[in-house]
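User: I'm curious what two different proteins look like when written out as structure tokens. Can you demonstrate?

Assistant: Sure. I'll show them one after the other, since each token string lines up with its own sequence. Here's the first protein:
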Amino acid sequence: MIIPAHNEGAVIGRTLTRLRPLLDDPDVDVLVVCNGCVDDTAEVARRFPGAVVLEIDASSKPAAMNAGDRATERWPRLYLDADIEVEPSAVYAVFRQLAEPEQIVAARPEAAFDTADASWPVRAYYRARTRLPEEGVRLWGAGGYAVSRKGHERFAAFPEVTADDSYFDALFSDDEKTVVPTPPMRIRTPQTSSALLAILTRHRRGHVELSSVPAGSGQRLRAVAGTVRGPRSALDAACYAAFAVVAHLRSRSVVGSGTSRWEKDASTRTAAGVH
């Protein structure tokens, strides 16, 4: 397992606490790759026996994942965002799936959004999002994905892109990837509208950079409009549309400016699980 972490000292302890059974398993490598950190991410991660902590100078998630790849020879591999909580049983289930001599070479656990601490516009956005019909097997947008040795042969290294999960997902056909039925990975959603806009802008910009926007804005908005069944779902759809349009406009301005930035949700990064 490879966990890229850039200034994640507030949450890496929470993530590793959930992974303690894996840290005790001699057949599993758990690597925390601190990239360009100026906080205590590495110090916190080293408090967990069994975790291998690497530090690189570059503030780059792809560079961190590549460094993790070079530091382990174990397969399959799960790449996990530092703020995502996943049950060890889910990790084992994905690894078992990818160890089978089948066509499946890429997978992830199921995932669920936790909106408990979010503002009402954010909760409305995610209610509308979860009503959208799924199109094919989607590995991106869940905070973690895994690959077998055979699947990793599809690419030499992760390129310097914002949407690494979308890049990864596009490498495989629906027949080669799957979402394994597991306890879901916990995705803590942004708590505020501004924090949600930040990550939506980053996601949209990442798709634009890859020229792989999964659906046109109009198509997505028509799809969410089709989920309206009453006043509450109509309000949810309106919130979804508002966030989507603003994020689209912001991403265009960022891409057009030629600047590079990594928008991060700071609203959920509070100290937790540090021992």
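Here's a second, unrelated protein for contrast:
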Amino acid sequence: MKTDYINDYLKNNLKESRLRHTYNVRDLAVKLAEVYGADTKKAECAALYHDMCKGKEFTDEVLNDYVIRLGLDRKYLNKSALSHSKVAAAIMENELGIADRDILNAVSYHTTGRPGMSLLEKIIFVADAGEPGREYEGSDEIREMAFKDIDKACLMALEKTIDFIRSSGGDLDEDSIYTRDHFLKMEKEREKNG
């Protein structure tokens, strides 16, 4: 799954704090995969690639060029916090030959989530939001919930993300809203069905 390539790439292109974050995400994703019976190799692969486009060579200009060349939604222009995941998945598929759709989706949607996420997508989403290096109000609760109920952990992470982006005036992708609403609906159905 090209983990040798990505490890070398990350060491040569990410700043130390981003590299530490990536390895923390990998470690948490693998633990969560073990807990939920998911493929640990896929979890490791997706986690290692998830922020590859936050390296020094991926300036806003480079990411914008990829957005245009790949025909991605123009809403990603000048928004590296959103575009890096889409561009990473496209590079993985088109330039590195990674064809596993579940891994590609896990990378593509790790910042926003999406309704109907697979187990692997949920694991990477929660691992990114809740890795031990993340210290924000509620991060401990997300980490704790991740090992009990992955869906509730996703919902908690989405709510924290949406609140943070709104309060800081950042770029809120509507996919995050749709995903949060999807998890809220699932939660209500679970409560109704006991």
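A detail about the second structure: The mean pLDDT is 94.
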